[in-house]
Give the backbone structure.
Amino acid sequence: MNIISLVVWTLESNCFIVYTVLIVFFIAFTMFHNNRLEENHNRNRTASKKNLANINIGREREHPDDDDDPDFLLPAIPEDTPHIPYKPLKRSIADVLQRSLDYYELMAKRRTVRKFSTEPIPQEVLDNIVKTAGTAPSGAHTEPWTFVVVQDPSTKEAIRGIVEEEEEQNYARRMSRQWVTDLKPFATNYKKPYLSDAPALILVFRQTYSWRADGKKRMHYYNEISVAIAAGFLLAAIQYCGLVALTSTPLNCNSRLRDLLSRPANERLELLLPVGRPHEDTTVPDIKRKSLEEILINV
């Protein structure tokens, strides 16, 4: 009798014992596994409670009450700031209507371009469009923005080098194939000659927080939407004075450009705008914007 036959004969002769052993083993394994699951569950609950406690402690430290730090709770601007009368020029309905139409027609001509003239822009013009952006509303009037204007050729070349290096990786492996496909009608790729051709670059940085005069942190509420509104003001000012821009959001360039321009850790790059006059050979895609019926709902 070979080994296989012996095993089969043994199992057939003692099937009751074999099945009993298997059942006992299965019950024991199930109980052991359930105990392990319960231990892991309890361990996770304990860890979650500890994390929640740490979070609450962090919140208490970040936002101490009056007893802990009576000087902490100060408004972003003086509490006794006077309120003064606001009386803008009251225009006739006809004038309001005409001005709304004129402004729409001006902004409807705005286009994003990728080929710029190298003709310089007067510094005063750049100052004025940045001042216009600085009139945007912001959460608690914290004005969480910094506008860096770059006209130095070597700095523009350095910015271009950083952006093209990162964009080559973005197009090759970081961006989805659909994203790259959607950009094809605009004839854009990782090469960015406009970053050195345009006479000025305006980099819009978002301040996540700032510092008070007493060295304590000043929170910036709604800083993302505040900077977005300011960027809209900036684009409108550029269009109004007869210049053009490209709304560029360089992916994965924030830290390198922040270091290049010596910006602090509380600032994050949101937009990079080449600004100038369009090159005489500039072309733009023949695209249409959504109609009023597609973007407006009257209630």
About this structure: The CA atoms of residues 35 and 41 lie 10 Å apart. Residues 56-67 have pLDDT under 50 and may be disordered. The radius of gyration is 32 Å.
